[in-house]
Each structure stands twice: as C-alpha cells, then as structure tokens.
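re: ur question from yesterday

yeah so i grabbed the chain u mentioned. its 104 aa long if i counted rite. heres the sequnce exactly as i have it in my notes:
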Amino acid sequence: MTDDPKKPVPKGVADSERFDFEAAKPAKPAGRTLKVRKIGNSLGVVLPKDVLAKLKVSEGDELSVSETPDGVALTGTDRDTADLMKLAEDIMAKRRRVLKALAQ
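ran it thru and got these structure tokens back, copy pasting raw so excuse formatting
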C-alpha cells in the first residue's frame, strides 16, 4: 500500500481501508516456460541442462512428480535409494512364501 498524499481518498474511506491495486496483481510464475512436444506416441518436455543439474539427474534416472498447492513439483530420485528399493523388490519376489508365512 502506498500512502501518496497526492492521491485523492474517496469520501468515507479511512486510510486503513485504502487498497493498493498495484500490489494485488497476480505475480508471474518464476522460472522459464517449456514447450510440450510430441515424442514418439507420447507428449513430453525437454529439460535444459541447468534444470537437470538442479534435479541431480541424468539420462535414465527417474523423476518423482508430486502435487503441491501451487501445482506440481519434480524431484530427482536418489540413485542409492532406487538401488536399495530394487534389491528389496527382488528379495520380496524370491522369498514371497517366507514373507507370507512371517506375516501370519
């Protein structure tokens, strides 16, 4: 809110009720705009090098997409965690009967 003494204040409006319409304009989203393109039979976006570096991912890595109040967020999957999850899935597949018996 600006308290410009030169701006006329409408009759019956106190200073505390004045509203700064310039500050109320929605902010432009930060960052850059990426174009959605056809890639094979799918649609996708190409991430620039600096974005890949911030996500700490490279070709073949996985990204997690999660909803946020502002839209969606991309996060890189930790390679060590992904390797451990793969190992756990392999063990669970091989030892399914044992794990089922232990669960009872």
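noticed a couple things. The mean pLDDT is 79. also The CA atoms of residues 36 and 42 lie 10 Å apart.
anyway ttyl
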